[in-house]
Write a structure and sequence with these properties.
Layout lengths: L14 H19 L4 E6 L1 H7 L3 E2 L2 E5 L7 E6 H6 L6 E3 L27
Length: about 120
């Protein structure tokens, strides 16, 4: 009798989900390392329109044509008051999603010299 194995494939995040995760991590990093909270997220206007986001985690998303596509900036509230902008950039890396490959179950050698891992 043949046995059937079920191979679990982890979910693949959407590009929008990956963008949101990267921006959220950058906001957390800024707020952890700076006494002033993040005030806004700046992105290329094309990206703002494509994603359709007005805000992320309560911060407004502002179109800035000086930022290239695939990048964003977290703007510090201190810099909005002083007129300067602290630049915290993140670059999205292209990802390649491959076809899942079924692999055999891992096995451990059995015999007198085999010892379970510590």
């Amino acid at each position: 009798m043949a046995t059937t194995r079920i191979v679990k494939i982890p979910p693949v995040a959407t590009p929008q989900g990956k963008n949101l995760e990267a921006i959220s991590k950058a906001i957390d990093q800024h707020n952890t390392n700076c006494p002033f909270p993040a005030a806004e997220v700046r992105m290329n206007p094309f990206e703002v329109e494509r994603l359709g986001w007005d805000e992320i985690r309560g911060l407004p998303v502002v179109g800035d044509p000086q930022i290239s596509t695939g990048r964003f900036r977290i703007v510090c509230s201190r810099d909005l008051d002083d007129g300067g902008i602290e630049i915290t950039e993140a670059v999205a890396e292209p990802i390649t999603v491959g076809t899942p490959v079924e692999t055999p179950e891992p096995y451990a050698p059995v015999g007198p010299s085999w010892k379970p891992p510590a």
